[in-house]
Amino acid sequence: MPTITVQDGTQIFYKDWGTGQPIVFHHGWPLSADDWDAQMMFFLGKGYRVIAHDRRGHGRSTQTATGNEMDTYAADMAALAKHLDLKGAVHIGHSTGGGEVTRYVAQYGGGGRVAKAVIIGAVPPVMVKSDRNPGGTPIEVFDGYRAALAANRAQLYRDIPTGPFYGFNRAGAKVSEGVIGNWWRQGMIGGIKAHYDCIKAFSETDFTEDLKTIEVPVLVMHGDDDQIVPYADSAPLSAKLLKKGTLRTYPGFPHGMCTTHPEVINPDLLAFIKAA
User: Fold this and answer.
1) pLDDT the model gives residue 218
2) What is the SS3 assignment for 220?
3) Catalytic option among 61, 95, 234, 238
4) ∠ CA 115-121-123, rounded to 5°
């Protein structure tokens, strides 16, 4: 398997297919690069070089007990980008991966390394409720995730995709057992300690200053029926903070809309990438 070894000895697994302008995909918690199958195949077929990695502690990368926070995630990505000699890349992140993209582009995206970015159902500006973020999600919700993860990770990783992640708990939803099983498979491959720590990383990291400093065009995509990262406290706020932000809202779409609606999401991504 292709991997790189970063500064602290962690091995990061990645896929690198095709030629042309590079598109780098950043997955959500607690998944892996495999969550981007529908996008990797689509853009490979359009003549792009497609790259996706397993975040440390996730998928086939090292199950780390340390470094499971956004600064290290961004540094790992910078090491991979240097290893692959990426220039003029488009970085696309979903959920936690959207936070990773935001931190990476803000800290390492200069010098022509990044051309554009996309954040989808993403956690910025900040998820957790506080005096500064009164519309956020109460800390008790994330404490509940941590408790459920520690008590019975395998069951939690059935409950999330069966219910809110893909909107399969909505009346009339077309439920896919294959999609649910694939979510469970990806989650269980990773390490419990990294997944536990990542809950704090995706819920409590404040990306406000990162968003303000990004110079490249950024597309913010979000379903307004997202039950994981509530729409009102995320996408519209991020788009306003970005210098070159564009907000695209998808009525009725769930958090996992890249999987449930690739026939809509992929052409919209392509149009943004190709736009002057």
Assistant:
1) 98
2) strand
3) 95
4) 90
Q: What residues in the chain have per-residue pLDDT under 50?
A: none
Q: Would you say 238 and 244 are in contact if contact means Cβ atoms under 8 Å apart?
A: no
Instruction: Please give the angle made by the CA atoms of 57, 156 and 205, to the nearest 5 degrees.
Output: 50
Q: Is 226 noted as a catalytic residue in this protein?
A: yes
User: Could you count the other beta carbons within 10 Å of the beta carbon of residue 67?
Assistant: 19
Confidence (pLDDT) at 1: 79
- Which residue among the candidates 34, 210, 226, 233 is catalytic per the annotation? 226
Reading the block at residue 122, the tokens are: 């993403």
Active site (annotated) includes residue 26: no
Instruction: Report if pTM > 0.90.
Output: yes
C-alpha to C-alpha distance for 82 and 153, rounded to whole angstroms = 35
Q: Confirm if 1 and 13 have CB atoms less than 8 A apart.
A: yes
Please count the other Cβ atoms lying within 10 Å of the Cβ belonging to residue 75. Answer: 19
